[in-house]
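User: Can you fold this complex?
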Amino acid sequence: MIEVSGLVKDFGAHRVLDGIDLSVQRGEVIAMIGPSGSGKSTCLRCLNLLEAPSAGLLRVGDVTIDASRPVTRRQRLGFRRPLGMVFQSFNLFPHMTVLRNVSLAQERVLKRSRREADEISRQLLDRVGLGAKADQHPSRCSGGQQQRIAIARALALDPEVMLFDEPTSALDPELGLEVLNVMQELAAGGMTMIVVTHEMHFAESVSDRVLIMADGRIIEQGPSAEVMRNPQTERAQRFLSAVMNR
Amino acid sequence: MTAGFLAPILGGVIWTLALSAAALAVGMVLGALLCAMRVSGGAVLAALAAMLILIFRAVPPIVWLFLIYFGLGAGWLQIGAFEAAALGLGLITAANLAEIFRGALKAIHVGQWEAAQTLGLPQVSRLCDVIVPQMLRITLPSIVSYAIGLIKDTAIASTIGVPEIAFQASNVSQATFRGLESFAFAGLLYIGLSIPIAMASRRIDLRLRSKVAR
Ligand SMILES: Nc1ncnc2c1ncn2[C@@H]1O[C@H](COP(=O)(O)OP(=O)(O)OP(=O)(O)O)[C@@H](O)[C@H]1O
Ligand SMILES: [Mg+2]
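Assistant: Here's the predicted assembly.
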C-alpha cells in the first residue's frame, strides 16, 4: 500500500530524516514511537507532502513521488487522495459547524451534493459517538470530541490509509481514551494506519508493528509485542525503559 | 429662527456615505491584492507590495487627491472629482487594510492551511471556505474602526468639490455667515453616521464571537 525508500529530509544544514525505508501492507496498523525530536512528525508530514522530502521515493497506491524531481499539483493531489490525516492539534475549522467541517471536503473534492454529504457526515459522526454535536461549533466540544470529529472529517473522504500524529497528546488521559477507542475500532475494521504516538499501550496492544525512531532513522521495528518487550538495540532499550518507568 | 438653511448640508450625507463606501471597496480589493503579493513568497512581488504600501501611506491624503484630480485629471485621463477622491482615499485604505489583512493571516494557525491541504481542498476552496472567512472575523473590528475614520477623512474631498457634508457646510456658512451653526451641524452629522456603524459592528462581532468561543 505504501512504499518509502531512502527518504531524507534536511531543514537547512540539519538532517532530520536520514534514510527511512518503510513498506506498509494494506490493513496493517503501524505505531511509530521514539524520543522527542527523532523525526516522527517530519516522517509523517513527508508522507503526505506537507513537507517536501529532500531525497527518496514515496509510493502510495500507484502514485509515486520522486523527491529529486519537481512535483506537479496534480501529482500532489493524486498522491494525497488516499491519505487521511489527523493532527495533534485537531485543526478543525472553527467558523463552521461540526457538520460543515465533515461535509465541506466531500462537496469540494468528491463533488457530493450537500444533502448526500451531510447524510454521510451524520453517519460518521454517529460512528464516533458525536451525532448530537452536528450543529454545534467545534469550540463547544471537548478536546476528545474535537479529535473524534477530526477523525470523522478525514474518514469522510474514504481514505485508504489514515495517518495520525500524536492524536491524543493534547488530551487528558480520559479524553484520550475516547479517541483511542475510535482508533481501535478503525483498526479492527481493517483500516491501514500509521500512528505516531506516546501511548505505549496502544503501540503494544492495538498496532501490528512498532517502529522505533531515533535521530532520523528507524532503529528497530517488528511485531509489536516483540519490539516492546524485547528490544534488541541499546538505544531502543534506553528509550523504552525511560517511557515505561515514567 | 429657522434651521431650514441647514438643509443642504443634510444633502451632503449621501455623498459622504457613497464616497466612504467607494473608497472602502477600492481599499478592500486593492488591499487584498497587496496582501496577497506580500505573502506570495515571490521576493520581487513582496518588495513591490511593500514599496507601494509605503508610498500609499507616506503621501498625505490631500496630496493624493490633488495629484489624481489636478495632476492625472489634467489631460492624462478623464476623471471626475468623486472618482478621484474614491481612488485617492482608496489607495491609502488599501495600504492600511493590506497590513491589517497580513496581521490576520499570521494570526490564523498554520494547522488550518495544513488541514485544508491534507483534505485535498482546491486552492480556491482553501481560501474562500477556510481562510478568508476567518480573516474577516479577525479583521472586522479593525475594518469598522478604519471605516469610521474614513467617513471623517472624506471631508477632504470637499477641496476638489465633491458635494459631501463638509463641502455643503462650507457653502452654507459662506452664503449665510452662520459658520458656527453650519459646521456644528456638520459635526453632528458625522457623529450620527459613526455611532450606528460602531454599534452594528459590536453586535456582529459579539454574535460571531459567541458562536466560536466556548
Ligand atoms: N519546520 C522545521 N524547520 C526546522 N527544523 C524543524 C522543522 N520541523 C522540525 N524540525 C526539527 O526536526 C527535528 C525532528 O522534529 P519532529 O517534529 O519530526 O520530531 P518528533 O519525533 O515528532 O518529536 P516530538 O515527539 O517532540 O513530536 C527536530 O530537531 C526539530 O527541531
Ligand atoms: Mg512530533
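Residues A 11, 14, 16, 34, 36-42 surround adenosine-5'-triphosphate (ligand 1) (CB under 6 Å). The interface with chain A takes residues 109, 111-112, 114-115, 117-122, 125, 129-130, 133-134, 137, 211-214 of chain B (CB under 8 Å).
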